[in-house]
Design brief:
The protein is of the alpha/beta class. It folds into 2 domains: 10-240 and 412-429, Vaccinia Virus protein VP39 (Rossmann fold, 3-Layer(aba) Sandwich), CATH 3.40.50.150; 243-335 and 349-382, DNA Methylase, Chain A, domain 2, CATH 3.90.120. 28% of the residues lie in helices and 11% in strands. The protein is built from 14 helices and 9 strands. The chain has helices at 20-27, 40-48, 68-72, 74-88, 132-143, 169-179, 225-228, 244-248, 272-277, 302-313, 363-369, 386-390, 404-410, 414-429, and strands at residues 10-14, 31-36, 63-64, 101-104, 147-153, 184-192, 203-211, 330-331, 352-353. The strands form 2 sheets. Strands 3-2-1-4-5-7-6 form a 7-stranded mixed sheet. A two-stranded parallel ribbon has the order 8-9. Strand 1, helix 1 and strand 2 (31-36) form a beta-alpha-beta unit. Helix 1 crosses helix 14 (414-429). The radius of gyration is 22 Å and the shape is globular. Mean pLDDT is 88; it is low at 1-5, 110-122 and 393-398.
Amino acid sequence: MPKNTNSRPTFVDLFAGCGGLSLGLEQAGFKPIFVNEINKDALETYQFNRKDEFPYLSEEMFFAHDVKELVLDSNRLEALKTAFLNFHGVDVKSLENGLDLLVGGPPCQGYSGIGHRRSYSVDKEQLPSNHLYQDMAFLISQLKPKLFLFENVRGLLNSRWTQDGSKGEIWRDVQKTFHALDGYSIRSQLVFAKNYGVPQNRPRILMVGIRNDLGFKFDDENDDSIAAGLLPHPDEYSVAPPHLEELLSDLIDLHYQNGGSTQVYPFDPMNEIQSYLRMNREGHVASKGQPITEHDYSNHSPHVVRKFQHMIEHDGEIPDEYKTKKFSQKVLKSKWTASGPNITVTSLADDYVHWAQPRSLTVRECARIQTFPDWYEFKGKRTTGGIRRAGNPRESNHEREVPKYTQIGNAVPVRLAHILGQHFRSILKK
C-alpha cells in the first residue's frame, strides 16, 4: 500500500463555507484532501482560491455539495476512502497513516442569533441544518481522524429545538452525539478570537476530539479544552489585535466615489500587518498602484451619505430625521478601547460605517477584519436580500444565496484557524 510520503498532515473540511478555517490550517502546513460545502457561491470561492495549489479539490471525487452524498451512499463513501489511499496515501484503516484531522462547522441558520433575523413559521427541528452535526459525527466514525474539531456560534450553547424547549437542549444533544463516538476523548470550550490577535470579538464554541490510541495525557478529566492542552492557550499568542486604523488605513482612497471602486492600492503598506496581508502566495508584497480586488463601494443615496457623515462627526449619533426601523448602524472606531475589539463581522454589509468616510465597508475591508489575505477572492454577488438570501423553509426551500459579505461573515477568522492548526500539528508530532 502506498504510504503518505507527503510530510504535510491531511485534513477534511465539512461545511467549509468560503474557506477561512481551511486557509488557516493550510498556512499551518495542513493539506486539504476533501471539502464539503452545499452553497455553490461559497464552494466556488473555496475552489477558486485553491485551483493552483490543490487542483484536485475541484474534481468530483474530492468535493461534495451535500454531506448526505457520503452519509447515505455507502458506495460513494467507500470510493472516497479508496481515492484517499490511491491519490493521497491516506489509509483510514491505518492508525499511523490515516487521516490526521477532520473539521466542521455545521450551518447555524436554525439556532444562531444571525438566523433569527428572518424567522419563518417552521419548527427548528424541521430545518435540516439542525441535524448536520449527526452527519459530521457519522463521518468521524467512518474516517477515524486522529483529531477532530467541531466549531460553531456561541448561540448554540443556549439554543432550543422548539420555542418551548429547554435552554441549551441542542448543545446537550450535540455533546451527547460526539461523546458517543467510540475511541475518542473530547473537550469543549468557548473561545474569543480577539484573545488570539484577531481584530474582532468573534466568540466561537470549539469542541476537540483526540483518538485515544495517540496516548494524549489528560491531567484532569474535568479540564476544558485549553486546560487539557487540546486548544492553544491565549497567553502563547499574546499579540494584541491590530487597531482598525492599523489594519485598513492603506485602503482609504481619498478619491473614492460613492458606488464606484478602487482598483489599485492607494498607498504603500504602512506597517507589518498591512505588508503581511498584501503578500501574495509567491511572497511578493503589493505596493502602491498595484491591483487590488473586492474594493467596491456601495451606492448610498445622498440622504444616507449625509446621515453617515453626521454620525462620523458626532460620535455615532443618529438624528431623529435619519432614524429608520432598520438595524441601526454604528460608526467603527479607528482604535479599540482598553478592552480590545468589541465588534463581530456580521453578514450584512451596512451594519457598520467607516470611521473616516461616509460609507459602509467594502468586501476587502471586511475580509481583512477576518484576517483573509488580499489575494483571496470571493465569488458570487456582493449582497442580496429577502427570500433569495434566506431560503424559505415553509416551502422546503433551503437553497440560499450566499453573497460575498455573508461568506466572509460566516467564516472562521484565518488567524485563529492558523493558530489552531499550529497547535494541532504540535499535538500530532508528540
